[in-house]
């Protein structure tokens, strides 16, 4: 039998997992890289590619940057998917550089 690819292409219209607004094209935000869980593929916690719209992503990064040092240490200073729990690795520097303005990205990598 044919199996779907492990990380299918994101849908053409996305729903932000923070503000729950819909209709975003995939390039107006960022998807995490959560693998699909075969036990519960419909679950929000384990579904692939949680989407965060541009505005919410910027606020999520600001929140991460403003977190206490001991909290940031747990995640090694990296920004993770806002869906908890989510087994996706942190967002890559490359992805964040493409979606954040330069001053916000510079604060993130500092």
Structural description of this entry:
With 110 residues, the chain is mainly α. It is 31% helix and 5% strand. It has a two-stranded antiparallel sheet. The radius of gyration is 14 Å and the shape is globular.
Note the topology.
Blueprint: E1 29-31, E2 51-53, H1 54-66, H2 69-74, H3 93-99, H4 102-109
Task: Give short descriptive properties of this protein.
single chain; mainly alpha; 110 residues
Describe what is shown at a glance.
The chain has 110 residues and is mainly alpha-helical. 31% of the residues lie in helices and 5% in strands.
Strand content: 5-15%
Query: What's the overall average pLDDT, rounded?
Result: 83
The main sheet orders its strands as 1-2
Largest sheet: 2 strands, antiparallel
Cα radius of gyration in angstroms: 14 Å
The general outline is globular
Number of helices: 4
């Amino acid at each position: 039998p044919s199996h779907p690819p492990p990380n299918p292409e994101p849908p053409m219209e996305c729903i932000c997992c923070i503000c729950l607004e819909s209709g975003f094209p995939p390039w107006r935000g960022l998807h995490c890289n959560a693998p699909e869980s075969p036990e519960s593929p419909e679950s929000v916690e384990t579904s692939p590619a949680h989407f965060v719209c541009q505005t919410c992503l910027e606020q999520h990064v600001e929140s991460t940057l403003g977190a206490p040092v001991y909290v940031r240490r747990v995640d090694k200073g990296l920004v993770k998917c806002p869906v908890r729990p989510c087994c996706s690795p942190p967002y890559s520097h490359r992805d964040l550089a493409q979606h954040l303005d330069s001053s916000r990205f510079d604060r993130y990598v500092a």
